[in-house]
From TrEMBL:
<dbReference type="InterPro" id="IPR016161">
    <property type="entry name" value="Ald_DH/histidinol_DH"/>
</dbReference>
<dbReference type="InterPro" id="IPR050740">
    <property type="entry name" value="Aldehyde_DH_Superfamily"/>
</dbReference>
<dbReference type="InterPro" id="IPR044151">
    <property type="entry name" value="ALDH_KGSADH"/>
</dbReference>
<dbReference type="Pfam" id="PF00171">
    <property type="entry name" value="Aldedh"/>
</dbReference>
<dbReference type="GO" id="GO:0016620">
    <property type="term" value="F:oxidoreductase activity, acting on the aldehyde or oxo group of donors, NAD or NADP as acceptor"/>
</dbReference>
<dbReference type="InterPro" id="IPR015590">
    <property type="entry name" value="Aldehyde_DH_dom"/>
</dbReference>
<feature type="domain" description="Aldehyde dehydrogenase">
    <location>
        <begin position="33"/>
        <end position="465"/>
    </location>
</feature>
<protein>
    <submittedName>
        <fullName>NADP-dependent aldehyde dehydrogenase</fullName>
    </submittedName>
</protein>
<dbReference type="InterPro" id="IPR016162">
    <property type="entry name" value="Ald_DH_N"/>
</dbReference>
<keyword id="KW-0560">Oxidoreductase</keyword>
Amino acid sequence: MAQFTPHGKHLIGGEWVAGETTFASSPAHGPAHDYAVGSPELVARACEAAAAAFDAYAATSREARAAFLEAIADEIEARADAVTEIGTQESGLPEARLNGERGRTTGQLQLFAEHIRKGDYLDRRTDKALPDRQPAPRPELRMMQIPVGPVAVFGASNFPLAFSTAGGDTAAALAAGCPVVVKGHSAHPGTGEIIAEAVKAAIESTGMPKGVFALIQGGDRKVGEALVTDPRIKAVGFTGSLAGGRALFDLCAARPEPIPFFGELGSVNPMFVLPAAAAARADEIGTGWAGSLTMGAGQFCTNPGIAVVTDGPDADRLVAAAKAALEKVGPQTMLTDGIAKAYREGADRMNRSNAVQPVLTTESAARNASPNLYETTTDAFLSEHQLGEEVFGPLGLVIRVKSADEMERLARGFEGQLTATLHTDAGDAELARRLLPILAQKAGRVLANGFPTGVEVADAMVHGGPYPASTNFGATSVGTLSIRRFLRPVSFQNLPDYLIEGDLA
Ligand code: NAP
């Protein structure tokens, strides 16, 4: 028997609200269900409720918000089996992945609870008054971070839990003291609903204002447009495509009151395999690369789509090892029909391009994708822009370079990335030292001798990077630093003692 049968409604101001029309979900397996289509009117109601909740929620103690985040985690765990059931049906991801992702999601909520309890995120600074300073006295200044207001969250298709309804963006915003209006992803509306049910239960058990969280299901692009242009929304967290993110970013910038749009978009995550590392372990790196490239059907934003290696026998070994490992993978189910179609189109573009040579080409049908592998040169790569664009799925491109100088030239040619990787041994030290500062200019995270899939949720993590990896290079969407997106520094000057209370004290 099904663990969970969705009712298909939106959650607004603490109430489940039906819509006038519905759309059917498109699960990878299991039954489809009908969901209420969102509308600008419903978005406006959710934003009104969020704005009404803001003052009271922003004024809650850090301890109260921490308890709220922990209650959400507990309510999600209480629905564990049902979450996994609907999540696997909708996404086609395996049960073990959904279970692991649930742990990551509740772990993030608990991490933010601990983070705000400590209070460091407020970044409080005090400049003591210097009344006798000449030629003019100095006032007392107290600076701290305050919540920005209601936040819109667009969940990711590829992380139905950890980057979606109560995922990293929502946890960071709620921790900061900001109400959240989630635009449900149409790829997993039922998973969104059961998580919203958990948040609703946590709101009720901890006595939080009802408007502090809303879920508006999609089914119509007007929902996202209305949400980012609603004057009550003060910031947006988004994970998705470059095209969708850019469209919404532009809407945010064009508002009478522009607001920050924190979009985590696409990336090809180049790996630079330096000569000594290639000589020592080309096969191991090739096999490991294939594993990272096909993990989750290649549907990770940190998927390393490009390997740069010096031409020669070590490059041949790396390519042969990668090809052999990719041949064993076979077709995998993609998250949505649309993502599977986009993958096929990306592979078709590569197949038609004169700038690449095929190493492994496969046919992908329906909602499946099989790995593809190509090779190219530095000049071809730098002259054909689309080779540097992400193909979301298990598609790899090897760029063979002739020299260290050419590797450096190529590194300088990349656009902004979420990650860049160095495979390096002691014999590569000089070249690695040349590349490291270049890659640090290009990416939010630079890693050595590993693969970028698997993003640790931690204090020192950065999941972001220069455009087009993200729309705001000063921010991260993973880790405790992500709370800064939803805070604003305010300086309080010469406040009388009776106003120095709460977090200001
Ligand atoms: P998407 O098509 O950009 O959709 C993301 C969300 O934005 C959905 O809720 C979608 O609504 C909405 N949306 C997109 N375009 C819109 C527009 N013009 N107006 C209003 N709303 C709009 O991305 P996706 O298909 O979910 O994910 C696949 C892509 O995301 C991949 O290409 C990958 O590059 C990228 N991605 C990036 C990361 C990262 O961390 N950087 C992670 C995962 C995926 P609907 O639900 O109505 O479609």
